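Good morning C.,

I know you're traveling, so I'll keep this short. The sequence:
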Amino acid sequence: MRHLRIGKVEQYLLSKLEAGEKIHLLLIDPEESSPENASRIASKAEEAGSDGIMVGGSTFFSQSQMDELVKSIKSSVGIPVIIFPNNVTSISRYADAIWFMSLLNSVDHYFIIGAQSQGAVLVSQYGLEAIPMGYLVFGGDTAVAAMGRALPLPLNRGEVAACYALAAQYLGMRFIYLEAGSGAQRPIPPQTIKAVRKAVAIPIVVGGGIRRPEDAVEALKAGADIIVTGTIAEESFERCREIIRAVKSFKTWQTPHHFLP
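The tokens, ready to paste straight into the viewer:
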């Protein structure tokens, strides 16, 4: 039987986490950034200490533009470039890996497994590293909730998110993403992250609404392993730099964790 082996990018992330580090990933939206600007921001993020670049947006559907943007970013950084897909058209052969994810709280079969069944062949043909992920969306007033037809999870009912996250783990997904949405007014509450952390033994990714170093630190204290920021880098890269610094300095007093293989 053929098993999905852990690839280089996933091993890179896990090695950092198991050494006691926390991870920062910069999310670049192809709809909001030209290839030149994306390359510039990605380079600044790497210089600031970010561990990788995610590329994706809720309403972006041009594969050719996606390819150009990914190639531009790849030419300027040495850290991994990971696709954060919203649809089959987001798959680019030029990236290092793809979050192969299911929007678990969507009411539309397409975003749970339909798009994934269509995209799997391309991922295989391109030789992209697929990293299995369960994706959970909170709040209903964001583009990702609308486009993914999500039944938004309540921000302050961590036990609900924990049930979904545990199901994702049992289904074999190796990461869980708690998403407040791009431009969200507030981040995922610490008590919700704590509930998920208590339930699962896989890395927790948290994104959306993180605009201050304090927001990132609260999420990390609650049990997050990977912090994703996007909008703030366009608004003020200096504030993004401060968040990256907070994430990377957190490792100095956090106990290393061993995750499920």
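Safe travels,
E.
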